[in-house]
Amino acid sequence: MAQSDDTTLEQLGPKDAALLQQYSDVHMNVFGTPLRVMDHAQGTRIWDVDGNEYLDFLGGIAVNSLGYGHPAWIKALTEQANKVAHTSNYFATVPQITLASKLIEKAGAPEGSLVYFGNSGAEANEAAMKLAKLHGNTLPNNTGKPARIIALTHAFHGRTLGALSITWKPVIREQFEPLVPGAQFVEAGNVQALQDAFDASDEQGPVAAVIMELIQGEAGVLPVGAEFVKAARQLCTEHGALLIIDEVQTGIGRTGKWFAFQREDLSGGIIPDAVTFAKGVAGGFPMGGLIAFGKRNSSLFTPGSHGSTFAGNPLGCACGVATIDTIESEGLLANAEERGKQLRDGLASCGNPLFTQSRGRGLLNAVVLAHPCAHAAANWALEHGLIVNPVAPHALRMAPPLVVSESDVDEAVSILAKVPSDLPDD
Ligand SMILES: Cc1ncc(COP(=O)(O)O)c(C=O)c1O
Q1: Which of 155, 325, 318, 171 lies closest to 252 in space, CA to CA?
Q2: I need a labelling partner for 53 at 20 to 30 A (CA). Which of 41, 105, 107, 362 fits?
Q3: Which residues are part of a known binding site for pyridoxal 5'-phosphate?
Q4: Does residue 126's CB lie within 6 angstroms of at least one atom of ligand 1?
């Protein structure tokens, strides 16, 4: 997101303004000027260097699952730091083994399923694309063209060159083309278009994989639709393609289930061939990865197929174990479901004429705006102590920590209810 093209340094507190000037002097401008310089945080609250407090309904973009400074997370991180922080993949550690086992179990993945750990969402999807390519090499192909990877319009899978090949937004993709050969887009929700893509295999090469998010978070929290997902599953099975679900944003409890594909209303009850995860998995420690479902898909990677120096880092894995255990022990899946409903209902009935719809599942939500003023609306909320995200000109995204309380949600709704409806458009 471009953070604050419309925030001037004069609007900020004195420490924020001085530090943001220094920030700009030493950072490449890929993020725009940050909104504030943050100092410390606890639970669902974060404070900037000028001492202003914010209720955080973005959670580091769906990352801080347990909120800030959760004792179980701090304990896991510090204990592991005191034991061993990094080993290389010539060696394994116990948290790595524990986390992989827990992820396979929570995904309900069948016997023989295996995990690959990376460090981010883009890397998780790079791994998935490499898996798809290895699978594609096993498919009949008389075209001389590479097997294809089909992604959806409005998809976001990351910004590395592979992940960017399957990321829709032309303004962030096109300047880097040509990208990975065989990456193609099909209109999200259009079963016929997907069917047509499969039917073109004799001329264009077989389809190695279809990759999709079940809720397109970066596009404005848009579900792709259970019927479409079911049709994709059927077509992939018929044609021998992998169905890969990108759960980087939706995974690890965010939608009220461990993974969004476990929600019948999002997936129609399908079982994927692989799932990618990142963001919330380690509650704020950089971590990502891939679960390949079943023995056959899991054995596509062999020694040398893939890897990364930090993959399976013990600190991240210890944080991941603590995150999953705490989600379980504190009933945070149920909390995500209940607080999410409270938030959507609250926004729908708060009487703000700017809001035309609230959508999402669990604690991944957006409120749709009557006119495209998301940046001004998010800035107004920030000035009034609430962090939300102008994910699209017409949509404010909310992805608070899974520990968010009933009173936090009431407070967020009461701030949002007062956002003026006549703010300038983006
Ligand atoms: C669905 C999805 N996939 C992949 C990514 C990329 O993750 P990262 O920014 O960790 O590379 C994101 C990030 O927003 C995402 O939402």
Answers
A1: 325
A2: 362
A3: 121-122, 156, 246-249, 309
A4: no
